[in-house]
Amino acid sequence: MKMALKDHMTRKIVTVSQDATAAEAYRLMTNYWIRHLPVMDAEEEYIVGMLSDRDLLRTPGPETKVQQLMSSPIKTFSIETPIRDVVDAMIEEKVSAFLITKNDEVVGIVTSEDLLVLLDQILKRDDDTMTWSLSEIFTNPALQRAAYLVGQAGI
């Protein structure tokens, strides 16, 4: 199985304007079944932040502007970054989504859900060749890291 970041990210990015309201952002997240929205500047030329469903939980009201709720500045990763580095950053920084760039242009987003899908593929592949005992799962660092990530993602 190829383990390139470009194969395990979401290329279609749904964005929201920094001037949008929390209600508008919530509607976008609900309609597209997503938990993260890159936030665009007023002219919609640049991404200036990231809004998560958790950010919406702390909104004082539905008319609150996205700009007041978003996280900024945002960290990005190059499309050439090893997946392990992205997973490590998610765990260490308690962040569940990063934008992916190529030549300083945003080309996708990788979320904890994307990485869980990858983990599922790995485990299904391994099911054909081996059986995991419970003790092996608890002592395997890669699986411990995946379990931690799943817990941090609230899944």
Overview of this protein structure:
There is one protein chain. With 155 residues, the protein is an alpha/beta fold. The chain contains 7 helices and 6 strands, in the order βαββααβαββααα. The chain has a 3-stranded mixed sheet with strand order 1-2-3. Strands 4-5-6 form a 3-stranded mixed sheet. A hairpin with a 2-residue loop joins strand 5 and strand 6. The longest helix has 18 residues.
List the defining traits of the structure above:
155 residues; alpha/beta; three-stranded mixed beta sheet; 7 helices; 19% strand
β-strand percent reads 15-25%
- Structural class comes to alpha/beta
Q: Looking across the biggest beta sheet, what order are the strands in?
A: 1-2-3
What's the total helix number?
7
Straight-line distance between termini: 25 Å
Residue share in helix: 40-55%
- Give the overall average pLDDT: 84
Poorly predicted ranges: none
Q: Looking at the chains present, what oligomeric state does this protein adopt?
A: single chain
Order of helices and strands: EHEEHHEHEEHHH
Number of strands: 6
Radius of gyration: 17 Å
What overall form do the CA principal axes indicate? globular
Largest sheet: 3 strands, mixed
What's the SSE blueprint?
Blueprint: E1 16-17, H1 22-32, E2 36-40, E3 47-52, H2 53-57, H3 66-69, E4 76-78, H4 83-93, E5 97-102, E6 105-111, H5 112-129, H6 134-139, H7 141-152
Parallel strand pairs: 1-2, 4-5
Antiparallel strand pairs: 2-3, 5-6
